[in-house]
Design goal:
The protein contains 5 helices and 7 strands; from the N terminus they run ββββαααβαβαβ. The chain is an alpha+beta fold and about 160 residues long. It has a single domain, classed as 2-C-methyl-D-erythritol 2,4-cyclodiphosphate synthase (60s Ribosomal Protein L30, Chain: A). It has a 5-stranded mixed sheet. α1 runs parallel beside α3. The longest helix is centred in the middle third of the chain and has 14 residues.
Length: about 160
């Protein structure tokens, strides 16, 4: 069994969709980035890659590569899941926290958990997503961006000696 930690942050900007955990959230601004800028999914990807000692999101999906422009982050997460399986690992559980002053995310958490569990091929009760604010402090508190923290637990696949 191994654990990995992930972190991501993106600035909020007008004219973009806000996507978190693969779910589009109604809001006046979205996150700026090369892909869909889904900070939650990016943090989970880095946690999974870290747990398997396979580098980070930028080494697998370089932002300078045109093929990743506006790509849904769930596609990247699926590729990471496949890479883990190829290396003898399976995802056991995910715990993540989104840090945002707004919008309020409570009503979207269950759908995010469902979307992420389906993409990872694990039971929904193995995915925990929480949301909090930064109490008005820092770039998140000023409404300039959204951050996410994640921890992933992976296990050697049955019959594998990872």
């Amino acid at each position: 069994m191994r654990a990995g930690i992930g972190y991501d942050v993106h600035p909020l900007t007008p004219g973009r969709r806000l996507v978190l955990g693969g779910i589009e959230i109604p809001f006046t601004r979205g996150l700026s980035g090369h892909s869909d800028a889904d900070v939650l999914t990016h943090a989970i990807i880095d946690a999974l890659l870290g747990a398997a000692a396979l580098g980070d999101i930028g080494s697998h999906f370089p932002p300078a590569e045109p093929q990743y422009k506006d790509i849904p982050s769930l596609v990247l997460l699926r590729r990471v899941r496949d890479k883990l399986e190829q290396n003898g690992w399976q995802v056991s559980s995910i715990d993540a926290t989104i840090v945002a002053e707004e919008p309020r995310l409570r009503d979207f958490i269950d759908r995010m958990c469902q979307m992420l569990s389906q993409t990872l091929g694990i039971a929904v009760n193995r995915v925990s997503i929480k949301a909090t604010t930064s109490s008005g402090l820092g770039f998140v508190g000023r409404g300039e961006g959204i951050a996410a923290h994640a921890i992933a637990i992976i296990e050697a696949s049955a019959g594998e000696g990872a």
